[in-house]
Amino acid sequence: MSPRGLVVSAAGKNDRSAYTHRIMKLAECLEQRSIRCDFFHLPNNPPLNKVTTACLFFPFWLRTLRQYDFIHCGDHEAGQTLFFCSPILRSAIVLDIHGDGVAQSALSNEIQSSGRNRSASLRVKLEDWLATTCCHHMLTVSTPQMKALMAAGHPREKISLIRNGVDLELFRYLPQPADPPYTFGYIGEFQSWQGIDNLIQAFELYDDPRHRLLIVGFQKSDREIKRMFSEKFGARVELVDRTDRNTLVELVKSVGILIIPRIAHPAIKHAFPTKFAEYAAMGRPIMVNDVDETADFVTEYGCGFVAEPSPESMAQVMKRAAETPSSALEEMGRRARSMAQENFSWEKIGNAYAEVIFRLTSGSSGRNGK
Q1: Residue, of 313 and 363, whose pLDDT is higher
Q2: Model-level pTM?
Q3: Strand partners, 138
Q4: How far apart are CA 309 and CA 34, in angstroms?
């Protein structure tokens, strides 16, 4: 009989973030392999919507939890809720670690305090300890984080590398335009750690009116940064609000090179941006900063450009990229597509995760890592 799982999400039912996209796709992959998955959204089940006390109340849902062979916890916030349940559950608890939550908290505090506070919050540190203590297995999206987890004392057999994937049919290969309307493109969100300030300064330094920049992803909360782009660059930029994935693919047809301008920080090093796999799948050369594992992929596959995370270095690399012949960019794009097929297809990721689940639920041997 195939195992049955429960996906515990720290986001609400209507969330559209990359966080929810990942856990939904992983669940979909398991369903395609006859592993049934149900969802439990903490924010839609008070009092579990209170992160700081949720672990005290989840034992009241034991009857529900005991129906499942495994429980996939979407992140540390979801994982810590099972701390007091884990000793009396037969389910294998899988903690899906999207990045270094402690480092992310430290980065958030550093940004909000203008550098005065560089420490993670006590709440996040406690969440991290509770979640990693009660889980039987951990998923990580990057090799650097896997190494960090092992350095922290977690056994290798308790950790699986399950990356963020991409739908290769939706994000299809797009031939390189000979003379693209937009030399560069950025698609994503606009938090400080995404490196938007560096992108703005780099494009200011690279002051060539022949080359334009397409920016996609603005929401209502981004009105100020959208205004800044418009005032600084005028006709040199095209600004597009957040849109659906099909429209996104159509927009990328007009872009020559896609950019991920992230900053240097442990929180970034241990993550792996979903858009990297999507950029690659569409057959576009990718310009990244040397701050995480994406730089290693770009170098290994020769599918783009790597800059240091400073406006000056980024501007220099943008100039070199813009002067690269379209035939060379086309070849980089083909290699990027191959990289996506080899590493980021949901088919391969689904097979790998299903293997983890079958191993964990096949008997007690799979849970000895606790």
Answers
A1: 313
A2: 0.91
A3: 95, 159
A4: 44
Q: What residue type is assigned to position 150 of the chain?
A: M
Tell me how many helices (H) and strands (E) the chain has: 16, 12
Query: Smallest Cα–Cα separation from 184: which of 322, 328, 325, 323?
Result: 322
Question: How long is the chain?
Answer: 370
Token look-up 């856990």 returns 23
pLDDT of amino acid 363: 66
Q: What is the DSSP letter of 178?
A: S
What pLDDT score was predicted for residue 27?
Answer: 97
Q: 261 preceded by cis ω (within 30°)?
A: no
Which tens digit of pLDDT belongs to each residue from 89-102? Answer: 989 999 999 888 88
Distance CA 280, CA 271 (A): 17
CA dist 30 and 189 (Å) reads 29
Sign (positive/negative) of CA torsion 348, 352, 354, 355? positive
Q: How far is it, in rounded angstroms, from Cα 240 to Cα 260?
A: 17
Are the CB atoms for 305 and 317 separated by under 8 Å? yes
Place of tokens 């709440």: 123
Please give the structure tokens belonging to residue 367: 């849970």
Which region holds residue 104: left if phi is over 0, alpha if psi is between -120 and 50, else beta?
alpha
CB 270 within 8 A of CB 246: no
Residue 362 predicted with pLDDT over 60: yes
Tell me the Cα Rg of the chain.
Answer: 21
**Is the backbone of residue 283 left (phi > 0), alpha (psi -120 to 50) or beta?**
left
Reported as a pLDDT band with limits 50, 70 and 90, residue 108 is confident
Provide DSSP, 185-238.
EEES---GGGTHHHHHHHHHHS--TT--EEEEEE-GGGHHHHHHHHHHHGGGEE
| Nearest-angstrom CA–CA distance, 1 and 120 | 44
